[in-house]
Design a protein that fits this description.
Elements (H helix, E strand, L loop, with lengths): L1 H15 L3 E6 L1 E2 L11 E6 L2 E5 L8 E4 L4 E2 L3 E6 L9 H10 L2 H17 L2 E6 L6 H10 L7 E4 L36 H13 L4 E3 L20 H13 L3 E3 L1
Parallel strand pairs: 1-5, 2-6, 7-8, 8-9, 10-11
Antiparallel strand pairs: 1-3, 3-4
Helix pairs in contact: 3-4, 5-6
């Protein structure tokens, strides 16, 4: 709740044109040293941290957080903010089939806000569908909805029937099409090359692939290889050629 109040106050400062403010608390951990500084002072001008510690600039608005610890924002390198968690895996798959893409997009904005309020200011979102992650990232960057900075992957890349195949476990024909390279499902180096280029064309910041099976997919084993060495080499090489990192 305190973080929510602080963020709301900072948004108010931005709206009023206030450009410099100071966050002050009992302690500060800067993420670099092995010690805790006391007191904790962070000077912010506009949307950038100007200094840690030191005196309060004249005319700055001071936000005193009391007995708290200031620290850098957390980073989560594996998220899926456009997907909802449900302990009932089969139930969630059925629910998702009934949700329209706009509803999924709106629900993802709630996940982004919760993530930010938990202290995560940057996330790597490694796989989505229907370009939901692109829309969410862009809306956050434009200030339309609150959320962390997002590095997004568009479609995660894997093999037919593998962990990244959204059609796995459903009866043949139910989804009216077979998954292909445009949805990240590949079965050759050539298709892998297309899938990487397709994702980057539509805004991917990072490329995600599934070389083996994974948890929470019904038709594959976690320890079963699903991509060939040639396919993986192609994914990484094309990603690097286009100045993107690849994750697995």
């Amino acid at each position: 709740m305190r973080l929510a109040l602080v963020l709301g106050f900072l948004l108010g400062l931005a709206a009023s044109g206030q450009s410099t403010y100071v966050l002050r608390a009992t302690r500060l951990f800067d993420g670099k040293s092995d010690t805790i500084s006391q007191p904790g002072v962070v000077v912010v001008a506009g949307n950038k941290i100007q200094s840690i510690g030191g005196p309060v600039p004249p005319g700055a608005t001071v936000i005193d957080l009391g007995d708290a610890t200031l620290l850098p924002g957390f980073i989560d390198a594996h998220t899926h903010l456009t997907m909802d968690f449900n302990p009932d895996y089969n139930g969630e798959r059925l629910i998702e089939l009934g949700r329209t893409i706009p509803e999924q997009a709106i629900r993802s904005t709630a996940n982004a806000r919760v993530t930010l309020m938990a202290g995560f200011t940057t996330v790597r979102d490694v796989g989505s569908s229907n370009f939901l992650d692109i829309g969410l990232r862009n809306a956050i960057n434009a200030g339309v909805v609150p959320g962390p900075r997002m590095l997004v992957a568009v479609y995660a890349i894997g093999s037919t029937g593998g962990h990244m195949d959204s059609g796995d476990g459903f009866r043949f024909g139910l989804l009216n099409h077979e998954s292909g390279p445009e949805e990240g499902v590949i079965d050759s180096p050539e298709q892998a090359e297309f899938a990487v280029r397709f994702n980057i064309k539509y805004g991917a910041d990072v490329i995600k692939c599934g070389p083996t099976g994974g948890v929470l997919s019904p038709t594959d084993d976690v320890d079963a290889p699903q991509l060939t060495q040639a396919e993986m080499d192609t994914i990484v090489a094309v990603a690097h050629d286009l100045r993107r990192k690849a994750a697995a």
